[in-house]
Structure formats: structure tokens, C-alpha cells
Design the sequence.
């Protein structure tokens, strides 16, 4: 700037500037009198200039016409957003005006899943199958908000099937509230709420859910629901998939990182549930996480092709080592155990496991279905399937029909005992209430009589006094 | 700056300059339009997702830059309303066309472009290996995609396109015809192929797809109405017959011969063979060392046969295959392991049968394989 200005000042001396203030050189200096600046009244326009002017007019008309045509052409074509954005120079864009991207490119080798996914911005898909779960949702969302894994890396997918309560309404409301929160750190990534009814015939109450006879059919239906959810929600940008039941009561906020840190293909924690005092305080809950045993393999060979072995029922004695029973409350939570079947309460798996085709068999796969079949299939494809015996999360305790019966019985018993005790008291000590009443009335009678006596005596005394006085007066008179 | 005559010159702007300026403006305007992405119809815009984090089977709104991206909305998908009917056109059902690709054949793309099903209902999904060959194929594929999606006519443009890259361990080794078909390489090759198919399928299926059309990258000729024709049968899994055109030196004319031998009905011999095998061994079709005596659909095609004649199948090939989305959603996938001594597409047919879906073939409805 400076050298340019100074060189300029050499050409046009500043002290003469006043003479040029209106752009015209004035006075006698005439340093730069290149063209003759004389006033010439304009006569007829020269021919070449007339030609130029008509050219300009034609040019302007052509431009306007071109723009109008362009506007209407794009209007009739598709909404005219392009033309509009040109007129507004893109300043008014937004709202209805947007451009579409139709091509997506993803390199799946970037989403294989690593031990420290939160540092590598690895996205995790949380899958939650739901059915008549309205009552559990507040608890679930409390857990969700507390997760320490970066929320923007968590994509949520819910499957609501065959629900008669307001699961869908509560779910939508809760999720929308979270996304509308002021705190950006609370917002989750993609949220899919999927509805699909399978026409489940089995009741969802605890008794019919866990009855042995209903198991095979129920597990196959559950498997279908899980597969529908996963296949509709898994995207090319997911590195991890986390399955979580809605009725988990207590789990560490860091559960995603804790499980991910092990860097296994499929990993499950131990699942227990708290119990009332009279039932022993706590109990293993998820018996679907186990290691295969020879007994079970032999049993499997004897069964029909479509049979499904379910754990935790006396009908199939498999003698398998269960993850749940190996828990030591003071054990190292990082201890790992190889598994063949897994439970579905809380599964963290690398997305590639599902991409390569491992799913929840809705048929009898090596005599297993759903999550147990999932574990088996993952093993079949040489994925690592691991359980953590001393890392425990707690499933909500819902009293079973038996428990409720037990509790009712216990209450009845308590009431009966109370009544008996009262009876016994009565018998051994006799009822003194009547006597007390008698005594009381007797006392009262006595009191009343005494009072009467008193008043009578008082009256008598008064009369006596009067008589006495009269006598005295009489005596005085007389 | 320092020119004393500046203002004078401005006043005397020549009309020629003005004309040149207007012309320049028009020129710039032209390029403004030319360089912007193509416009899409209202119906396409209506189905677009509002956030990049969305099912890949729909296009999404490009962020215009500036301003923070809003958190993704709560999206509802009612899968009870996703239909798969014999008349997909009438019900505007979404098709997901999936192709595992190792080499790009221009004829394949040309064949896609001539499909008579509305392109705005078709999503294309590709998976390519991360090898030198795969990189080349990707480049060529992307070139053709850009040409169609950006500069092509609206009716030619597909709803959305997903390109996936993955190195599947062990990598799909040489694609040479002879090397590829060696028997000992088959299990490894087909397991890798199965993984590629599953990766492609389960990353792209999404909540809106009604039908999945599997079409191999080397299938270069299909009837333009193949989607409507196959869907008409209302079958869960339906496979046309895959043939190959070649120069018949004896007849001195173009001829055709059966190509895909994975569409078959089981035979007692094959079942016996399977029984003698270990649980991890696989049965293969089309090898003299392993005569299965299965009924092969490839040989059942008749010159004068009915075009829409159906044949129930026990094993299917992947050259061309129309599958109801429900089948895959229920869990039927391409086993990368020995499933009842079957693998990949043949294992898929078996798994679908275990789930209660019956595959069907059309011996007289032909598609054509590239001839190398």
C-alpha cells in the first residue's frame, strides 16, 4: 500500500489536489491535459453509438427473456428452486429449498470396532425390543441419559410389537424430549422407532412368558422380532451393536465402555436380580449364558430337528456351566469366560458379526433358537463369544404368579397369626371389659347417690338453718 | 487510484463494454445452473431423509453448510405397512437391487438403465473389495453413477445408491474363470462371497424395502420388466434361469448355453453324500468329482416352454434372484459356513426353507451372463 501510494503521489502531487477535487482539471496548471475537456453540446448521436445502444437494448431484452424462460422452465420441471436460488443469490435458501444427495459411499473396514471406540468416534447401534413395556420406560430412559458413551455416537432403534398399552406414545415423547434438550451433549444420533406386529399368541406376563411349554414358540417369535429390528436399523456406519432389555434395573453408566474395552466380537455381563428378603435377597436371572457340555450335545443328538433346548428348565438337564452361577460378588470384574450360548438382556457385539450374517435363529439352529442360537452361530463363524462372570447388572424383579401367591399366603398367614394371638390373649387373660363397665356404672351410681345424698343433706341443713332461724325469729318475736 | 481521469472514464462507459458485461452475466448464470446438482421431483423430495444419519435406501438432504446440524429427528417406521404384493408397481413398492462386484461391465450398467420399473423406487447397493481390481471397478462404477445421477434424465436416476468397500478375509482372490472354479478354492471363495452378500444386505436393507433383487455384476442382459415379471409370481424367493450367449463355431452363429448350476432340486444321492460328509464339509454342484444327480434347472429350459412355468427348488444361485424382504428380515441369510453341508446361496435356500419359505425357479425365464 505504502510504496504504491507514494509512487502515486509522485505522479499527482497532493498539494495540487484541490484543483482536481471534482475530477476536472481547472486553472492554468494543465499538467495532464491529455484530452480536451471542453463542453460540447450533444447534437445528433453518431451512427456507431446508435448502433451500440440498440445492441445494448437487445442484449438486456434477451437477458430478461432468458431469465423468464429459465424461471418457468424450472418451475414446470420441479419446483423452481434452482432459479429462485439464483435470483436470491442463495441468501434465501433453506426451508423448502434443499438439494438431495443420492449416493453414499462407505468403507466397511473403518467400522470393524476397536477397544477404544469412543476415541475413534465409532458409532454404536442400541437395539431395544419392546412389548407392553410402558411401565419400564421411565427407568430405561433414566439409564439412557446417564450413559457415559458420547451420546452423539449412539443410534437408538426400538421395535414396538403387539403392544396394547401406550408404549409407543411414551417412547416417542421421551425420545423427542431428549432430542429437544438444550444441552447438546444429551442428544442422541439416529433414532428409529419401528412398529411391527407379529401376532404373538403368548401372553407377556411373567408366568406364561417363562412356562416351559411356551418356550420354543416364544423364543422363535422373539428371534424374528430381533432380526426385523436389526435388519431395519443396521447402517453401514455402525461399528457396534448393543442389545439391551428395557427392564434392567441397575447397570453401570459406563457399561458400553466397560464391555467394549475387552475388544471381543460378542460379550455379555452377568445378569442377576434382587429378591425380597424372604426369597433370599438375590438370584441369578439370565440362565441363557452358558458353556456347552457333552451331556447337552448328546441330548441334542436325540432330539427332533425342530426341537429347541431351553436352559433353566428341569425338562432338559444339560449340566452346562452357567455364567450366572459363577458369580463372585468380590471377584475381578474383568475376568472373562468363553460361552456358547448367550442371554439377550445385554449383549455388546461388533457390527461385523451381524453384517457377516450371524443373527437370532427363528428356527432350531443346532437345537437352539434366539439368543442362544445367536451365540452358537457366532461360534460357528469363529467369532469370540465371552461372558464376564463378576461384572453384574441387575434385572428388575417382577414377582411371578408363584411369588405373588407366596406373598398373599404370607400375608394371610400373618393376619391369621395376628387374629389367633388376639384370641389367645382373650382366652388366657379373660375379658375384663364387662367388669370394668360394671364397676364403672357402679362407681357412677355410687357417685350419683352420693351427690344426691349431699344435696339432700345440704337441703336438710339449709332447712334446719331456716327452721332454726325461724325458731330464733319466733323466739325473738315472741 | 491515482488516475486523475478515473471519474471521467466511468462516465463514458462504452456500450460495447456493457454488452460484454451482460453476456458475461449470462455466461455465469449458465454455469451457476450447470454446476448445481440436478433438481429432483417433488415425490423424490418427499421421501428424502432430513439427516445424513438415515436409512441408506433413501436420499438425504445435503447440508447447505453454515449453522450447526440439528440433532436427528425421531423417525417412525411402520413395517406393518410395507407390502410385498404381486403388483409392486401399483403399490409403489421399493426395490433394493444388490450386486457384489469385483469387475465393472459397462453392459451391466446399461442393462440397469433399461429397467422398466420406476427408477425412483429402485435403490442400488454395491459391495467391492479393496483390491487393485476393486479400486478400478469402483472408479468406473462411480463414473457411470455420476453420469446418471447428476447429468442423466430424471427418469433414469435411481432413488439412491450405496457403494460399500470391504476387504473380506480371505480376500476374494483372482477373478479368473479357471482359478475361480477350482474345487478346492470353492469353499473359501464362496464363504467370502457369502460374507460380502450379507454385509451388503444387512447394511442397506433399511425399513422401507419390499423386495430385494440380487443381480450379479456379470449378468449383462435381463428382460426390462424383470422386476414386475418375477414379482407377479408372488413367491418368497424366485430365480430365473441364467444362461450365457456364445459363438457356436459348429453352427456358425450366436447360441446360448446354461450357465448357473446352483438352481436345483435335491436328489437322494446328494442327501446320501451329505450324510457321509463331516459337518463342516460342503457339497458343490457342477463338478465331475462330486456327482450329485440333482435335478438342475439349467437343463430344464425348453424352447417352447411356458415363460412363467414354475419349479420348486431346494438350492438357488445368486446370479439373479428376487426375494421378499420378509425372508431376509426373518433372518434368512447366506451362510458363510457349512449349513446342512451347503454354503452361500444354496445354504440360503435351505435356511429359508427352515423358516418356512419355499424357493421357486423359472426354467424358461432367462437372464444372460457375460462371456469372458
Sequence:
Amino acid at each position: 500500500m505504502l510504496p504504491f501510494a507514494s509512487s502515486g503521489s509522485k505522479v499527482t502531487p497532493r498539494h495540487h489536489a484541490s484543483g482536481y477535487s471534482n475530477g476536472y482539471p481547472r486553472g492554468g496548471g494543465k499538467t495532464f491535459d491529455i484530452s480536451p475537456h471542453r463542453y460540447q453540446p450533444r447534437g445528433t448521436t453518431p451512427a456507431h453509438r446508435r448502433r451500440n445502444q440498440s445492441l445494448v437494448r437487445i442484449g438486456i431484452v434477451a437477458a430478461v427473456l432468458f431469465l423468464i424462460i429459465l424461471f418457468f422452465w424450472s418451475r414446470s420441471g420441479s419446483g423452481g428452486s434452482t432459479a429462485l436460488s439464483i435470483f436470491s443469490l442463495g441468501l434465501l435458501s433453506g426451508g423448502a429449498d434443499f438439494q438431495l444427495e443420492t449416493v453414499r459411499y462407505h468403507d466397511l473396514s473403518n467400522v470393524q470396532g476397536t477397544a477404544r471406540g469412543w476415541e475413534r468416534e465409532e458409532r454404536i447401534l442400541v437395539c431395544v425390543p419392546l412389548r407392553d413395556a410402558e411401565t419400564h420406560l421411565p427407568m430405561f430412559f433414566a439409564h439412557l441419559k446417564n450413559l457415559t458413551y458420547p451420546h452423539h455416537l449412539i443410534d437408538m432403534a426400538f421395535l414396538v410389537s403387539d403392544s396394547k398399552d401406550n408404549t409407543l406414545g411414551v417412547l416417542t415423547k421421551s425420545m423427542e424430549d431428549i432430542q429437544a434438550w438444550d444441552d447438546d451433549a444429551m442428544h442422541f444420533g439416529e433414532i428409529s422407532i419401528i412398529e411391527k406386529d407379529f401376532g404373538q399368541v403368548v401372553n407377556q406376563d411373567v408366568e406364561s412368558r417363562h412356562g416351559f411349554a411356551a418356550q420354543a414358540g416364544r423364543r422363535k417369535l422373539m428371534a424374528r422380532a430381533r432380526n426385523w429390528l436389526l435388519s431395519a436399523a443396521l447402517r453401514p456406519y455402525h461399528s457396534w451393536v448393543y442389545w439391551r432389555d428395557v427392564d434392567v434395573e441397575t447397570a453401570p453408566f459406563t457399561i458400553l465402555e466397560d464391555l467394549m474395552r475387552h475388544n471381543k466380537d460378542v460379550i455379555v455381563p452377568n445378569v442377576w436380580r434382587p429378591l425380597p428378603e424372604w426369597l433370599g435377597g438375590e438370584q441369578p436371572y439370565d440362565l441363557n449364558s452358558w458353556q456347552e457340555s457333552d451331556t447337552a450335545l448328546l441330548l441334542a443328538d436325540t432330539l427332533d430337528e425342530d426341537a429347541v433346548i431351553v436352559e433353566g428348565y428341569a425338562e432338559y438337564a444339560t449340566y452346562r456351566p452357567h455364567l450366572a452361577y459363577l458369580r463372585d460378588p468380590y471377584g475381578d470384574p474383568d475376568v472373562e469366560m468363553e460361552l456358547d450360548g448367550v442371554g439377550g438382556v445385554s449383549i455388546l457385539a461388533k457390527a461385523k458379526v451381524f453384517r457377516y450374517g450371524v443373527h437370532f435363529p427363528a428356527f432350531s439352529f443346532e437345537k437352539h433358537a434366539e439368543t442362544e442360537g445367536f451365540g452358537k452361530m457366532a461360534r460357528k463363524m469363529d467369532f469370540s463369544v465371552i461372558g464376564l462372570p463378576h461384572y453384574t447388572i441387575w434385572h428388575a424383579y417382577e414377582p411371578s404368579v408363584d411369588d405373588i401367591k407366596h406373598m398373599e399366603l404370607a400375608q394371610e398367614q400373618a393376619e391369621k397369626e395376628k387374629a389367633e394371638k388376639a384370641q389367645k390373649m382373650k382366652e388366657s387373660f379373660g375379658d375384663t371389659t364387662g367388669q370394668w363397665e360394671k364397676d364403672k356404672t357402679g362407681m357412677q351410681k355410687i357417685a350419683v347417690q352420693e351427690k344426691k345424698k349431699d344435696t339432700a343433706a345440704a337441703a336438710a341443713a339449709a332447712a334446719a338453718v331456716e327452721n332454726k332461724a325461724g325458731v330464733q325469729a319466733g323466739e325473738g318475736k315472741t | 487510484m491515482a488516475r486523475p481521469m478515473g471519474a471521467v472514464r466511468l462516465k463514458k462507459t462504452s456500450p460495447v463494454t456493457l454488452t460484454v458485461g451482460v453476456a458475461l452475466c449470462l455466461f455465469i448464470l449458465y454455469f451457476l445452473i450447470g454446476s448445481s446438482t440436478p433438481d429432483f421431483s417433488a415425490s423424490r423430495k418427499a421421501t428424502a431423509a432430513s439427516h445424513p444419519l438415515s436409512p441408506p435406501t433413501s436420499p438425504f438432504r445435503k447440508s447447505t453448510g453454515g449453522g450447526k446440524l440439528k440433532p436427528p429427528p425421531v423417525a417412525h417406521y411402520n413395517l406393518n405397512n410395507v407390502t410385498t404384493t404381486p403388483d409392486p408397481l401399483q403399490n409403489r413398492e421399493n426395490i433394493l437391487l444388490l450386486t457384489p462386484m469385483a469387475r465393472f461391465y459397462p453392459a451391466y450398467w446399461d442393462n440397469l438403465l433399461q429397467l422398466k420399473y420406476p427408477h425412483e423406487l429402485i435403490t442400488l447397493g454395491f459391495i467391492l473389495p479393496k483390491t487393485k481390481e476393486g479400486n478400478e471397478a469402483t472408479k468406473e462404477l462411480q463414473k457411470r453413477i455420476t453420469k446418471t445421477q447428476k447429468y442423466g434424465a430424471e427418469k433414469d436416476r435411481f432413488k439412491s445408491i450405496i457403494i460399500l468397500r470391504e476387504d473380506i478375509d480371505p480376500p476374494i482372490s483372482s477373478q479368473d474363470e479357471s482359478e475361480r472354479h477350482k474345487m478346492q478354492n470353492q469353499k473359501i471363495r464362496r464363504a467370502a462371497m457369502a460374507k460380502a452378500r450379507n454385509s451388503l444386505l444387512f447394511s442397506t436393507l433399511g425399513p422401507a424395502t419390499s423386495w430385494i433383487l440380487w443381480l450379479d455384476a456379470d449378468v449383462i442382459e435381463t428382460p426390462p420388466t424383470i422386476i414386475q415379471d418375477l414379482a407377479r409370481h408372488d413367491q418368497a424367493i424366485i430365480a430365473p434361469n441364467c444362461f450365457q450367449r456364445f459363438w457356436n463355431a459348429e453352427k456358425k452363429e450366436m447360441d446360448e448355453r446354461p450357465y448357473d448350476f446352483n438352481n436345483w432340486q435335491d436328489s437322494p444321492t446328494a442327501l446320501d453324500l451329505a450324510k457321509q460328509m463331516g459337518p463342516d464339509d460342503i457339497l458343490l454342484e457342477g463338478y465331475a468329482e462330486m456327482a450329485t444327480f440333482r435335478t438342475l434347472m439349467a437343463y430344464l429350459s425348453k424352447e417352447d416352454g411356458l415363460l412363467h412355468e414354475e419349479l420348486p427348488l431346494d438350492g438357488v444361485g445368486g446370479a439373479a434372484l428376487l426375494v421378499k424382504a420378509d425372508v431376509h428380515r426373518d433372518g434368512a441369510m447366506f451362510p458363510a459356513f457349512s449349513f446342512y453341508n451347503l454354503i452361500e446361496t444354496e445354504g440360503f435356500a435351505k435356511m429359508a426353507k427352515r423358516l418356512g419359505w419355499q424357493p421357486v425357479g423359472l426354467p424358461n425365464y432367462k437372464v444372460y451372463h457375460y462371456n469372458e
